[in-house]
C-alpha cells in the first residue's frame, strides 16, 4: 500500500470562479483520518464545487487540494485507487442491473470482494437484480452507496448521500459510516441539514457563499445550536425568570406559557425555571441551519465574512 | 392548445431548423452558380428511366436542376427528417425524460398537449418551407438565372405537406407506443424505403404502378416543379396526415403513461428465460461490463442492428437483382455521360454494375449509415455521459480521462467496422446472386474507405463532444461538416478553377479513386486514417484540460 498521510483531505486557499461568480473562496480545511467530517451549508453554498475540485472533475482557479497527501490534479489517478465517491444527485446507467453496475465499477478497479458486496447489499436491503433505471430514487441510491463502500476506500467522499433513503436504511447507513471511521479511515459527508450530519459527524465545517465560516466539534455546535423551547407551567410566569439564564435570546410570555429562543445547555435552563415553577409540558424544536446562521453567526465576528 | 407549450417547443427546436435551412440555402446558391456556367442541354437527351432515377425532370435547366437537387432531394429528406425528430419526441420523448407527467400535472388534457406540440411542428415546417421558397426566388434573381416555367411554389407546397406527413406518422407511433426510438426509426425507415421505391420501381417493367403504394410518390411522383400542384396527391398526403394525427389523439388518450423507465430488450428476455439464462447472463451482464469499450459498444445495439441490416439487405443484397432488372434500360448509355451528372449522382457510371452500386449504395447511403453509428458514439458518448451525470462517477475510478476518450474511439471503430462489413457482405452477395461479376477487391475497397470516412466524422464528433461537453454542438457541428464536405466534393470539381479545393474535403478521399473499379487507394485510406487519429488526439487533449460540466 502507498504511504498514506494522516490527513485524508486537505485544501489550501482553494478558490473556484465560474466566470465572475465566486463559487469557492479561499477555502482551507482539513479532514483527518479516522474522523467523519460533516460539510454543512445551504443549497448553492459551494459544497459540491469543493468536492468536485478535490476529485479533479473541475480545476481550481487558485489554491490546491490534497487527498492522502497527494495532489488532487497531478496524482488524481493514484488518489482514486483509495477513494470511494457518491456524487450528489446520483445518476447511473439505467439499462444496467445493480449487479452489472457494481461489476462494471469493480472491473474498472481491478476486482472486488463479492462477499463484502453482498453483505453491504443485505445491510441496505438493496435489490441488485433489477435495472437501475427501474429502481426508485432511494433504491438507486443504495446501489450508489454500495459502489462507494465496496472497495473499502481509505477516504469516502459523499455529496448529500442519504436522500431518498427510508429512516431504517438511513440508520444502517449511518452505522456503516461510523464503522469506516472506527477502522481509521475517513469520511467527508456534505449535507444541508444539521440533523443528518449530527448523528454521524465528529466535526463539521460550515460553508456559506463559498467561504468556510466555521469549523466546530459537533458537541460544541450542539451547545451553540439555537432551540425554540415552549414551556407550559402550572401557573402564570414572569419573563424575568428566563432572561437571567445565560444563552436565552428572546422570550415571549403569555400567561401560563413561555416561548424561549435558547442557545445553551438545556440543563441550565430547566434548573433555573424548576426552582420556582412546576413544568407541565415542554416542547422543543431544533433550529434549522438557516436559523443558526441568522441567530448565531450573523452577530458574531464572522459577520463581514458571511455577508 | 397551450400557447406556452407551443412557444417552448418552438424555442427548443428553432436552432436546428435554422442551421439546416442555412446550409441548404448556401448550397443552393452554390449549385445554381455552378450550373449557370455549364452547358446542360445534354440532359434533354437522356431517357426517362435514367432521369427518374437521378430525379432530373425532362427539360432540366440550371434552375430546375438546382431546385431538384437541393430542394427536391436533400431539402425534402432533411425537412422530413427534422419533422420526424419533432414528431417522435413530442409525446414519447417527453415521456422518456419523465417530463410528460409534469406537464400533465397542469390542468391541461392530453389532447391539448398533443395539439400544441403538433401545432409547433406545423409552424416550424411552414416557416422553414417559406424561407426555402423565398431563397428559391432570391438566389436565381441574384445570379441572373432564368427560372423559366418552373413551379417553385407548387413544389414547396408538396415539400411542406410531405414533411408534415412523416412528422405526423412519427407522432402517431410515439403517442401510441410511448417509444421514441421506435417512432423515429420506423418512420425514417418508411421514408427511405419509399424514396428508393419511387426512384427504382418505375425502372422495372410492369412495376411502375407499384410506386403508388409508397408515400414518397405523392411528393415527387407528379413532378410538381414542372407540372404544378397535384391536388389529388396532396389530398393523399394530407389525408394520411390527418388519419395519423387522429390516431395519435386516440392512442395517447387510451393508454397508461410510462414512467421514466427503461425498455426491455431481446437480450433481457433471453436473460430471464431459464434455458438461455446462463449464456446470456454472461453476454448481457458480466461480459458487457468487463471493459469500458465493450459497455459503450453495448449501448446502441438496436441502432447498430438496424443500420447494419439496412445496409446488408436493402442497400446490398436487394440492389443486385434490382440492377439486373433495369440493366437493359441503361445498357445503351455506357459512354458520353456528362460529367455533371456523374458528380451529382456520386460519380458512378450507371451503365455498369459498379457505377450503379456507387450511385445507389455507396455515394450517399453508406456514408450516412456509418456516420450515424460513429457520430452517435462520438457525440453522445462523452457529452451524453456528462449530461446523464454519470461522468463524475466514472471518473471517480482510477482511470485516466484520456482512457475514457480512447475507449470511446475503440467502440466507434467497432461500430464503423460492423456497418462496413455488413455493406461489404450485402453488396458481395447481391452481386453474386444477380451474376454481376463485380470484383470482390473493389467492394472490399469501397467498404473499407466508407468505414474510414465514417470514422473521420465520428472522431470529429468525439472532438467536439470532448471540447464542449454538449452533444448538441457535436451533432450539429459534425452533420454540418459532413454535409458541407459531401456537397463541396460533389460540386467543386464541376468548376475547373475550383476543382483542386475538393482535396480539402474528407469525401474526396472516399470515392475519387473509384475504389469499386480500381481497388483500394492506400494513399487515400492513409489520409482518412491519419485524420481520424489526429482528431482523436485533439479530443484527448481537449477533454483533459477542461472542467466537467454540471447539469
Polypeptide structure, described:
The complex is a heterodimer of chains A (307) and B (551). With 307 residues, chain A is of the alpha/beta class. Chain A is built from twelve helices and 14 strands. In chain A, strands 6-7-8-3-9-10 form a six-stranded mixed beta sheet, with helices on both faces. In chain A, strands 2-1-4-5 form a four-stranded antiparallel beta sheet. Chain A has a four-stranded antiparallel beta sheet with strand order 12-13-11-14, with helices on one face. In chain A, helix 4 packs antiparallel against helix 5 (137-149). With 551 residues, chain B is mainly alpha-helical. Helix content of chain B is 74%, strand content 0%. Chain B contains 25 helices and no strands. Chain B has helices at 3-37, 48-54, 62-96, 100-104, 110-143, 152-177, 180-200, 217-221, 224-227, 231-254, 266-272, 277-287, 292-298, 301-317, 319-331, 339-344, 353-362, 365-387, 391-394, 401-433, 440-468, 471-491, 508-511, 515-518, 522-544. Chain B starts with a helix and ends in a 7-residue tail after the last helix. Chains A and B meet through helix 2, strand 6 and helix 3 of A and helix 12 and helix 19 of B.
The total strand number of chain A stands at 14
User: What oligomeric assembly is this protein in?
Assistant: heterodimer
User: What composes the largest sheet of chain A?
Assistant: 6 strands, mixed
Distance between the termini of chain A: 45 Å
Give the class of chain B from helix and strand content and strand pairing.
Answer: mainly alpha
What is the strand content of chain A? Answer: 25-35%
Biggest interface reads: A-B, 38 and 30 residues
C-alpha geometry of chain B = globular
**Fraction of residues in H or I helices of chain A:** 25-40%
Task: Give the overall form of chain A.
Answer: globular
- Radius of gyration of chain A over all CA atoms, rounded: 22 Å
- Rg measurement of chain B, Å: 24 Å
Alpha-beta content class of chain A? alpha/beta
Percent range of helical residues of chain B: over 70%
Please count the helical segments of chain B: 25
